[in-house]
Each structure stands twice: as structure tokens, then as C-alpha cells.
Amino acid sequence: VFGVMFAVLLQALNKTVKAASEVESRLQATMLGLLPLLPKQRKKPNQSYMEFVDNPQSAYSESLRTIRTGLILSALDNPHKSVSVTSTVPGEGKSTLSLGLAFATGQMERVLLIDADLRRPSVGKSLGFERSMVGLADLVAGTAKVEECIQRFEAGNIDVMCAGTIPPHPSELLSSQRFSNGVELLV
To answer: CA 117 to CA 165: how far, in whole Å?
Structure first.
């Protein structure tokens, strides 16, 4: 009896989302799509970063196109000029979704992908850019010009602004007026 009561209590306290249908009902938000989990491969530890470019006909790539279409259709009258991808904890797929969505949107229009993760940037590394490349932090700090910070990634048909030189206090840089002005300049 104690075991059954404990199991019922655990189930009542469990607030995790287990199915796509629960997203809209629990979070009161529209779900744009669901990315399938890719099998892990030892030779490609972050295979999801380039899956859209490497396998454009895969189910994963089709899921990214579905998310892109949902995002576009969500604002037909007033199209989005910028989209922010965020989460509460590391490892939830922000970089994966950002790269895939940028590649999918790059098929239709011009895209600038900005890596604003100034603690653990991953976009530049995943695309094979040099670590010492100037980027967002350098632009906001005023040590580089916009043209120097934007790189072209031909395989994905997108422009990329890497995080750049990692500052000692990233949150202060991202909350500054100079950051706001820089983003407005880019949009």
C-alpha cells in the first residue's frame, strides 16, 4: 500500500512533458515542431549541427523545414526580423536548433546567425571557423567593425557572426546599451 501511494505521489508531482500534445496544453504555447533524436556516432560527436547540410532529404531536415514554415506562418502579417533561441539549462539543443533553422531559412532568404552565447560559444567551432575570429563581443566592445565580424558559410548559404573574444563578464556586455544598439544595427 505504501509503494502504491508513493508511486501515485511521484506521478502527481511529475511536471515533465512527455508528448507533443502536452506542450500546448501545459505551456499554453504553440508548438512549431519536433526534432527527432539522431543516433550517436563516435566519428561525428555533434552530427546534428551539420545534418541539414549533409542530409537534406532526411527526416531531421524535413523537421527543420516544418519548424521554419511554422515560424514563417506564425507572423504572415508582420514577418519576424529576428528570432531568439534560448533555454533554461545547457545541453537542450539551442545551437543545434539555431544552426538547423538558419540553414533551412537560408534556402529561402538571407540569414545572419549570431552566436550570443558568450560563456560557451559553439557555433563558430561547429562550422570550422577559427577560435580567434572577431565577433559579437568585439563589435559590442567597439574593437571591430560589423564587416569584420560577419563571415559567410557557403555550405549552408548563411552569414555568421561568431561570439568573438569572450569577455570577463558576459552578462554585463549583453545587458548594455551598446549591445542593444548593435542588434538594432544588424536588424
So the answer is: 11
Contact 158, 126 (CB under 8 A): no
pLDDT computed for residue 111 by the predictor:
93
Global pTM? Answer: 0.81
